[in-house]
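Treating backbone geometry as a discrete language has practical consequences that deserve illustration. No coordinates are needed to read the tokens, only the vocabulary itself. For completeness, the protein is quoted in full, as a sequence line and a line of structure tokens:
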Amino acid sequence: MEKFWNIVFYFAYRADYKFYTLFDKIDPFWLFTKLLYCIPVIRNFQEKRGRTLSIMKKEVDEAFKRPDIGISQIFARGLIFLLPIIFFIILLFYYTTFIDKPKKFEPVFVVFILYSIISFLFFYKLLWHKNKYLKYFKEFDKKPRKWKIKWAWISLVVILFPFVVLILSFVAMAN
């Protein structure tokens, strides 16, 4: 089970980094940085510090790519953390829709907090305790392309399944 969730986490990280590289050319923050760099005062200040646009671009790429504290890793961590919470909320929606109508909103909020704690503890133990996932990342990078494609599709299904069922639960609640 630990390896399965590390694989899903790995492909969530890789997918986020691929989206970053795909949309890199139209990134509004990078376009804003390039516009600021055109101002002579800012360009001179940055060049005195030894920073050119290419160096700044390389630093931003590295900030996304780093598997230990990179932006893509943080996004993947948040996505993986949300999956069980969404699943439990779906179960709660179905329960409140078909079995019992809640009288107050407070128990639902308490249950959401409980789900968040359970999700955090579950994934902390499986993935993030002593950075276990970094060992798996190195192992998965060495795997053949066929293995990566197969597990990328499985990871996509695992990630999209709670969202699809969540949408279906909203439809069920509306009827």
In short: The longest helix spans residues 145-174. The mean pLDDT is 84.
